[in-house]
Design a protein that fits this description.
This protein has about 500 residues and is of the alpha+beta class. Helix content is about 50%, strand content about 10%.
């Protein structure tokens, strides 16, 4: 196949893995669209400043009549921003994975790119990761204030675009994409696939036997047969394997963070509700045009101090939401790695249900991707939707005054803040259930743990089955290209067992 890549390491072992050429082409194509989109925003913002400086124009504001509520283009903009930032994030995460591979500092196949830094590659260093975090927060904060309602004294409000959020959004997306492209240039990427059955063979092909054994020491002839968190003792197979919650501390921290964000939104909404000076409390999903906010702070919209203070507040408030959703990617990645691991053979999977769903889709590749990455699909839409709701809960109004002057008003809406909290709670519930799920079957759970997968996989060519490979007091189970017999649940599996075929 054109997407396969075959390498031979020093031990004369051949590794075949998918290079993910199609993924690479799509990501690079979207990255150039992101650059074009960001440059258009920057030049359009400059144009707004130039044309708004003429008489009878408002400085830094472009207003126009819109036939649909401004919330409609606002959510569309959030979707575009999410796609652009996720594309840059995927490039940055892929380069980080191989940077950590070369440094022999990687333990799991899935890691948080913004919280994990490389010691050798500058574009994946801790400083650059901190910059990428700030740019990601500024992107979503600017998209929340991009479209605004402008009141000119008439009954029908106009839709306005403020130059400052537009130019900050354009610069943020442009820098994220450029940093990710430079990171790709600085790192050799062997595969764009995120499957551990592609990334780990690529990892093995990058190192000779001596270097590999130094960082992942184990015997070629005797290997561990336990799950990632199991104690190294001979035991009978379990009908249910440990969950992702049980095996990885980062998963638990990510789940706790999501629940904490939901609680923080509820506390915030309660505070706004208590100090709301209005006697009538409105609970509609989209704020009414007649509602000027439950708590409002007025100021000069063109003031540098006002905008600096606004973005400082957004880094604290919307930054917590952004980081919480980013940490949720770890849960999605760990669950995806275990799903792919269990789909590699018929044991421990519901192959009939999997095939039935694939039959409903005209393109099996799309269906397989959505099934293996369903948490990523949920998270992708959740990012755009939750940031959009945040923009509804914290809004800016611009009021046209005499001449070229206009004033701004920052409003907080308790109802939308409560709805944001409900949305975070729903997302946290979905990810908690996924993280606490115990896979069925005797096949040991790995959750992308590289050393555990290396212990359990005997042949990387094409894994078709999992079962008994030899007999003894504690039998050896492993992978094979041909169907294997089930040893039964009454036989002990040794925590060490002879490997029938060495691969390093």
């Amino acid at each position: 196949m054109s997407d396969d890549h075959t390498l031979c390491c020093s031990s004369n072992t051949i590794y075949v893995f998918d290079k993910g050429i199609s993924t690479r082409r799509i990501v690079i194509f979207v990255s150039w669209i992101s650059i074009t989109f960001s440059l258009c925003l920057i030049f359009a913002s400059i144009g707004i400043w130039i044309f708004s400086s003429f008489p009878n124009r408002n400085l830094g504001l472009l207003s126009f009549k819109c036939h649909v509520p401004y919330e409609v283009p606002s959510i569309a903009l959030n979707l575009v921003v999410t796609v652009c930032t996720e594309c840059a994030g995927m490039m940055h995460a892929t380069s980080l994975r191989f940077a950590l591979f070369r440094e022999n500092r990687i333990t799991y196949n899935s890691n948080l790119r913004l919280l994990t830094g490389s010691d050798e590659k500058s574009m994946n260093s801790t400083v650059i990761n901190a910059l990428m975090t700030l740019l990601l927060i500024l992107s979503y904060a600017s998209s929340s204030f991009f479209y605004q309602e402008v009141w000119d004294g008439t009954e029908t409000p106009a839709c306005g675009v403020l130059a400052i959020p537009a130019i900050v959004l354009g610069i943020s997306i442009f820098l994220q994409t450029c940093i990710s492209l430079f990171a790709l240039r600085d790192t050799e990427i062997l595969t764009w696939s995120t499957s551990p059955f592609d990334t780990i063979p690529a990892f093995l092909s990058m190192h000779n036997h001596q270097s590999f054994a130094k960082h992942y020491p184990f015997s070629e002839s005797r290997v561990c047969m336990c799950a990632v968190c199991a104690s190294p003792v001979a035991k009978k197979p379990m009908n249910h394997q440990p969950s992702a919650w049980d095996t990885r501390r980062g998963v638990r921290i990510s789940i706790y963070l999501l629940w904490s964000l939901g609680i923080a939104c509820m506390i915030w909404g309660t505070w706004v509700y208590i100090f709301d000076p209005d006697d009538v409390h409105l609970w509609q999903f989209i704020p009414s045009p007649d509602d000027d906010g439950d708590i409002a702070v007025a100021g000069g919209a063109t003031s540098f101090t006002t905008w600096f203070s606004l973005y400082a507040v957004m880094v604290v408030t919307q930054g917590g939401l952004t980081l919480g959703l980013h940490c949720a990617e770890l849960v999605a990645g760990v669950v995806r790695d275990e799903t792919i691991w269990r789909q590699a053979s018929e044991d421990g999977t519901n192959s009939h249900f999997y095939s039935w769903l694939c039959a409903l889709c005209s393109d099996n590749r799309i269906c397989v991707f959505c099934l293996d990455n369903w948490l990523y699909v949920v998270l992708l839409f959740a990012k755009a939707f939750l940031h959009w709701i945040f923009g509804l809960g914290v809004e800016i109004w611009t009021f046209v005054g005499d001449g070229n002057d206009y004033s701004g008003l920052i409003g907080f809406f308790f109802a939308q803040i409560f709805y944001l909290g409900f949305g975070v709670f729903i997302l946290a519930t979905i990810f908690t259930v996924a993280a606490r799920h115990h896979p069925k079957g005797a096949k040991p759970a790995t959750y992308g743990h590289i050393a555990t997968i290396l212990y359990l996989v005997d042949d990387w060519q094409e894994i078709k089955s999992w079962g008994q490979k030899d007999d003894g007091p504690a039998c050896h189970e492993g992978t094979n290209t041909e169907p294997l017999l089930d040893a039964g649940n009454d036989r002990y599996r040794g925590w060490v067992a002879r490997r029938t075929r060495a691969y390093v």
